[in-house]
Amino acid sequence: MANRILRTLLGTALLAFAAMVHADEQRVVAITQIVEHPALDAVYQGVRDELEEQGYKEGDNLRIMHESAQGNAAIASQIARKFVGERPDVIVAIATPSAQTMAAAARKTPVVFSAVTDPVGAKLVKSLKAPGANITGVTDMLPIESHLDMLERAVPDAKRIGTVYNPGEANSVALIDMIEKRMEARGMELVRAAATKTSEVLGAARSLVGKADAIYLTTDNTVISAVEAVISVGERASIPVFAADTATVSRGAVAALGFDYYDHGRQTGTMVARILEGANPGDMDVESVSTLELFVNPAAAKRMGITLADDLISDAKEVVNSDQ
């Protein structure tokens, strides 16, 4: 009887010790995104799925903290302070505003950014090669020339291209300035409409009526979160709406040329896993995505007064017919 009790006590002690060791092995990854919309949500899911494929299973040897700032800079700062206080192994910051806020708060914790268009211009890193410090990540810099080629194929007579953007988002300002220069070289004019928050997107889009032959939207988080407002204006005023975010096509845009943000997240997750395994983020080059995919929505095109050419449709990876 005494031996049985001893074995039971020993077994319990061993289980407790194993649990303690297991808990010590658990890694913590904190993920923040500036707002919730399909592209950024896909990045988040991609990070999680890649970490699991790399052997980091949530609830086992991995704990994930995830919070959205809901488009609010003050909330983003609160999340940054909270995450730094929790001392995770790695912080993932999705989109430029969250990355900038996190970079300012986390001086020692490794930070991996994702869905950041211009990390040098946003002052996240000094260079894309071996950026130094504690920050690296994956950029979603847009292929501007390819996007303008798409616009000219779809609406060859369009010379005035409207865009809605948030002038308070460094990501957007950098893009808009570059796009304007590239358009001028092609004899096109960029017509800007500012929206500092999602509630202003509709009014900004309406201001383009009569001024723009087509509307082109970048990956601006404020605008993409309320893209249906722009699309409604495009349908009422017969102004075709194009985008850089392919997920926008299923929401009613005419066409988009971009990459899969889920794959973007998977690529980010690979970088996170390397850091968990001991890599120094400062030694890791900022990465980019090179594969582009064309999505088109012929039904949306008709609602906005144009017909897409057959060759453009045949070149698309996905044809969405949303008869809303």
Query: What portion of residues is helical?
Result: 40-55%
- The ordered string of helix (H) and strand (E) elements is HEHEHEHEEHEHEHEHHEEHEEHHE
Shape: elongated
Question: What is the SS-derived class?
Answer: alpha/beta
What value does the average pLDDT take? 91
The proportion of strand residues reads 15-25%
Main β-sheet: number of strands, strand sense, barrel status?
A: 7 strands, mixed
Strand order of the largest sheet: 7-6-8-9-10-12-13
Low-confidence stretches: 1-23
Question: Count of helical segments?
Answer: 12
Radius of gyration: 23 Å
Number of strands: 13
Give the CA-CA distance, first to last residue.
Answer: 75 Å
Could you explain the architecture of this structure?
With 324 residues, this protein is of the alpha/beta class. Helix content is 43%, strand content 19%. The protein contains twelve helices and 13 strands. It has helices at residues 2-25, 38-53, 73-86, 96-105, 144-154, 170-185, 201-206, 221-225, 227-237, 261-276, 298-303, 310-314, and strands spanning 27-33, 62-68, 90-94, 111-116, 135-139, 160-165, 189-194, 214-217, 241-243, 255-258, 287-288, 293-296, 318-319. Strand 3, helix 4 (96-105) and strand 4 (111-116) form a beta-alpha-beta unit. Helix 2 (38-53) packs across helix 10 and helix 3 packs across helix 4 (96-105). The protein is elongated.
